[in-house]
Automatic annotation (TrEMBL):
<dbReference type="InterPro" id="IPR009830">
    <property type="entry name" value="LppX/LprAFG"/>
</dbReference>
<keyword id="KW-0449">Lipoprotein</keyword>
<keyword id="KW-0564">Palmitate</keyword>
<keyword id="KW-0472">Membrane</keyword>
<dbReference type="Pfam" id="PF07161">
    <property type="entry name" value="LppX_LprAFG"/>
</dbReference>
<protein>
    <submittedName>
        <fullName>LppX_LprAFG lipoprotein</fullName>
    </submittedName>
</protein>
<keyword id="KW-0732">Signal</keyword>
<dbReference type="GO" id="GO:0030313">
    <property type="term" value="C:cell envelope"/>
</dbReference>
<comment type="similarity">
    <text>Belongs to the LppX/LprAFG lipoprotein family.</text>
</comment>
<keyword id="KW-1003">Cell membrane</keyword>
<dbReference type="InterPro" id="IPR029046">
    <property type="entry name" value="LolA/LolB/LppX"/>
</dbReference>
Amino acid sequence: MSTTDARSLLDQASKTTQLTEAVHLKLTVDPKVQGLPVQELDGTVITKPSPAAKGSGKFRIKDQYEAIDFVIVGGKLYTKKAGANWEEAGDITGGGAKSYDPSVVLDQNKGIGNVLAKMTDPKIAGTETKNGVKAVKITGMLNSTDFDSIFPTRGPGQLKGEHPATVWIAEAAPNNLVQLSITTDNGDISLTTDKWQEKVDIVKPV
């Protein structure tokens, strides 16, 4: 396959992602990558009736990571530590929560679809089974300004400039994104998705 084939597949995956209304995702960050407010995350994101997310992860609290359950609904972030009650942590869209917002992953303007469309110099690197899905592997480059919305980095560990990226896109239509990985000097940031369009109800925790 040529670069043209790679671009066409990326564009199709981008369009599919922008139309996706529900997805399960897993985010893993190499411990040496210090710029993100999250080290790992397992959750579900929906766009209808409004953007929302729920799951669990390890989030940076001051200078260390803590395991936290989260719900994002109605623009508010709710969190719960082990053995504690749910708390409203603030307005996720206004930055009051000062945390990672996984619900942006399916945002039509800032989410995965936009990131895939911005990949430069894409090349087909073969096919392989990834997470149980037969997928086409594509390598290329991504600029930090294009993936900052889904992988926000700040402080001394902030990522700048272009970075090698690899995506795995399901070979079968509608060509869902299976995994996106960014390679940095300190390690990889990887986002996997599955359970596309499996509807989940996300409500404010009691």
